[in-house]
Design goal:
about 270 residues; alpha/beta; Rossmann fold; 8-stranded mixed sheet; two-stranded parallel sheet; 11 helices; 10 strands; about 35% helix; globular
Length: about 270
């Protein structure tokens, strides 16, 4: 009986170790799902745009799309849009009209390895690229009180970090996580994720340093980043900040809910 028990303990330990090794060395495959594009790829968006390429170092190029309000819409400001962990700007461009119709330019960046951006992806370069875009927006003539920093999913932590070190009109987070470490712990609770994770992105710490008004949108049925993440972040928010719960909303469908569209329109009209 003891030998049989010892055998099963060894088998379970071996499985635990094997899965842990896979999670550690291949964690980027679980966290990000980029879709690269060739350098000569030609974007085709319905919204007017300008493409910008910024060479950061010998191997890193930031590809940025500057969506512009159409027609005679009065320019009101600029939105720095930090997108999620999927594909590239082609996937997220559909959200630009949410802002351009209100007179906001949308500066949307692809992270290294996404779309036409190149280089090695890591937490520091995500922050560096977002700051680079902020500096470009300021150089384009936009004052701090006309800049909205917007983060979606993976981009929420990046947006929060940027808003914690630079002034802006408002920080808007769509489906945020408390921290990458905390989110990983939700799925891999049996592992020491704090030690294992290459990415930390502590949205909770950054949020406490943001002086601008903060709005969070989160679906109550989010199966990717549970709604509990937003509820925990709410406890760190200052007076005047708001959490808008999208009842029945999942992770990628909030744009189709009237409550989010009306609330976002209201914020952008101010």
């Amino acid at each position: 009986m003891k030998k049989k028990l010892a055998k099963w303990i060894k088998i379970i330990a071996a499985i635990y170790l094997a899965i842990g090794i896979v999670l550690y060395f291949f964690q980027d495959k679980f966290i990000v799902h980029p879709e690269p594009l060739p350098a000569d790829y030609v974007f085709n968006f319905k919204t007017p745009f300008t493409e910008i390429n910024v060479a950061y170092d010998s191997s890193t190029v930031f590809n940025i799309i500057r969506f512009k309000p159409a027609g005679n819409v009065l320019k009101k400001g600029a939105v720095i849009y930090c997108h999620g962990n999927m594909e590239n700007i082609n996937h997220y461009a559909a959200f630009a009209p949410n802002f351009t119709k209100h007179g906001y330019e949308v500066w949307m960046m692809d992270y290294p390895g996404f779309g036409k951006s190149t280089g090695t992806l890591n937490e520091d370069i995500l922050y560096t690229e977002a700051l680079q875009v902020y500096k470009m927006v300021r150089a384009a003539g936009y004052s701090t009180d006309s800049i909205i920093i917007y983060g979606k999913s993976l981009g929420t932590g990046i947006a929060a970090q940027l808003a914690s070190i630079r002034d802006c009109k408002r920080l808007i987070l769509e489906s945020p996580y408390y921290s990458i470490e905390n989110l990983a712990g939700h799925y891999a609770w049996m592992y020491p994720v704090g030690w294992m994770m290459h990415y930390k992105i502590p949205t909770n710490l950054y949020l406490q340093k943001v002086t601008a008004p903060v709005t969070i949108f989160h679906g109550t049925d989010d199966g990717t980043i549970p709604f509990s993440n937003a509820e925990k972040l709410k406890t760190l928010m200052k007076p005047g900040d708001e959490l808008i719960a999208v009842e029945g909303g999942n992770h990628n469908d909030l744009n189709g809910f009237a409550v989010m569209q009306k609330s976002l329109d209201s914020l952008l009209q101010k």
